[in-house]
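Could someone model 2-acetamido-2-deoxy-beta-D-glucopyranose with this protein?
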Amino acid sequence: MRIMLILGTICAIFSAGSEVIDFDGKSSLLYRFVKNTRSPVKDVISLKFKTMQNDGILFHREGRSGDGVTLELVQGKLFLLVSSGDVATPSPSGPGSALGSLLDDQQWHSVLLEHSGQHVNLTVDGRSRQFRAWGDLSHKDLDPEISFGGILAPGKPVTFQRKNFDGCLENVNFNGEDIIDLAKQDVPQVLITGTVSFSCSRPQTMPVTFLSAGSHLALPGIPGHDGASVSFQFQTWNSAGLLLSSWPQQGSRRLLLTLSDGALRLGLSSSPGQAQSDVTAGAGLNDGQWHLVSLTVKGNQLSVTVDHNQAATIHAALPVETPAGVAYRFGGCLPPSSGPECESSLGGFQGCLRLISINAQEVDLISVQQGMLGNFSNLQIDSCGILDRCLPNHCEHGGRCSQTWTAFYCDCTSTGYAGATCHHSLYEQSCEAYKHRGSPSGLYHIDPDGSGPLEPFPAFCNMTDVPWTVLRHNGSAFTRVKGADWESPHRAVFQYTASPEQLLATIGRARHCQQELEFHCRRFRLWDTRDGTPLSWWVGRANEMHTYWGGSLPDAQKCPCGVVGTCINSRYHCNCDAGWDEW
Ligand SMILES: *[C@@H]1O[C@H](CO)[C@@H](O)[C@H](O)[C@H]1NC(C)=O
Ligand SMILES: *[C@@H]1O[C@H](CO)[C@@H](O)[C@H](O)[C@H]1NC(C)=O
Ligand SMILES: *[C@@H]1O[C@H](CO)[C@@H](O)[C@H](O)[C@H]1NC(C)=O
Ligand SMILES: *[C@@H]1O[C@H](CO)[C@@H](O)[C@H](O)[C@H]1NC(C)=O
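Reply:
Sure, complex below.
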């Protein structure tokens, strides 16, 4: 099968009035503004970026005593780093703080950061996330300067060293100022280090997508004087697949480069599928990032390197011949005659390739697309169709998401939920449900809202006729209090094994709910007898005050003995008030 696709627009067309700046990965721009001239209530930074590098700093603001705000591209995702106080190295502000994914795809992406005091809103390609800084990062605490493309804070100690941005920025706006326009005018407030240019004219590299297991790209080898070399970058989520095989003449050995368990495996075989003397390189290469592979054949040595790391080499018994006419086949099935889905387990690369070079000559994919070079099936030339199926994360209740080219999976281990998206609770919603299952009294996990957001928690189920759900707290032991008064009151805090939300959900499902607070006293007044001011109380879940204790009634201002009239001294409504020396 052949699919021809019309070439997409390679050059981005800028709307009138747009300004661009190109950073080469070593340069940066610092903008210094006059402090408090306009005293903005909030700072607003907006820009667009385009890059093929997965790491780099977009902008940075430095504050007093090492505070700062940094927006950084890490592994193709945007992270907002807020360093505060004496924290020397900033850490991503918690898991899930990343926005976007696969942003190193040479397409324009928009960023909007609004920042007011502790509140930060970050919007990437229209998707917003709210952050809360630990300290107050208002414009009063931040230096009146901002650097783009890297961290440039002259006169300040460099708190951390990160990669500079390598790519283009467009329409950089800081609180209404057009920064690129100011840089072009060479105003003194703008300081540029390194080399920048005011156009984004780098050649766009053309990726190619291997859409199905049967997708392949066959390219003729270029006979070299001294061995041969092949290099390319690949990007995939699949942990296994056939990346490259040589297409030899009858009788010669076949070179096989496969991905297996996320590592590269290089082998030399005599018959298809039978790898002899293979070596592995790299690990976790199915992480959706671009990885650079280079393969060299020299004499009887066959070597592979991944991402510039040390080479893994095969020493063959005989020299590995690279005769003219040898072709390279990327992806596809073995044997090559099998259909769109590979028959043998070895085969089927799904992902993207770019920057393919054979003997140091970059392969022109346009010629391939036009049928003038090699041949292919089921490819999408000129774009990479990779998707991040874990963004947004459809795994519920904290399940970990992983993916292949075609699907995502949730690892629900230790979440208390199961199912494809960790949606179904492993636990019953109440003790009653456990009783229906015939379970005896004991400690159970209950999940009062089932698949809802509340996590399951442990509770004691007392399987009487109508079962009781007993929720414990850490204050059930008697605490002896001596000599508390208005100036130094005694305060007891109870911590339940369930959160307030979990307690409310449990109470909401119950027909009857009770708790008992016992207060034993001797020579103690519960109320000031003169004006009835309570001297002891407890605080309910809505923060309301209650002055009665176990067995009494709200607002009775009496102990149980006062309610039923059995107090030792009928003049008092409580035995504690009566001045007796007994509990
Ligand atoms: C962030 O967004 C929310 C909701 O749109 C808005 O109420 C809030 O004012 C924004 N905060 C800032 C600092 O812009
Ligand atoms: C193109 O495919 C044909 C078979 O479909 C094959 O014989 C030929 O060698 C291929 N060309 C290259 C350059 O690989
Ligand atoms: C269970 O309930 C019964 C009857 O109310 C009670 O006697 C017993 O103490 C309870 N058991 C526990 C462990 O709470
Ligand atoms: C219960 O635990 C909380 C939080 O750890 C603590 O503040 C409180 O003092 C504890 N209460 C008792 C009565 O031990």
